[in-house]
Amino acid sequence: MSQVETVRIKAETSEDNPLGFIIINKSDFKDGEHELFVEDPTGVTLKPNTVEQIKAALAEKNIEIPAGVTLKADLQALLDAAPAA
Hints:
- It is built from 2 helices and 2 strands; from the N terminus they run ββαα.
- It has helices at about 50-60, 70-80; strands at about 5-10, 20-25.
- The chain has a two-stranded antiparallel ribbon.
- α1 runs parallel beside α2 (about 70-80).
- The longest helix is centred in the middle third of the chain and has 10 residues, at about 50-60.
């Protein structure tokens, strides 16, 4: 079975879509109607906003989460203090 090529297009952020993009089939992309979502050159698309996204971002930066740190604000502080890539 062959895979369908997809692209990310900009979409309004919301509680259901915190990333600011949706994925559509490349064949459905219409220039002028859709705007491609282009990732930041650092590889980080948007600031993570859920505990799971923050933990994933910390893992990508090889930052160990200290025992007992579970609050979103504390995890975000660790990420904010991390050196830029």
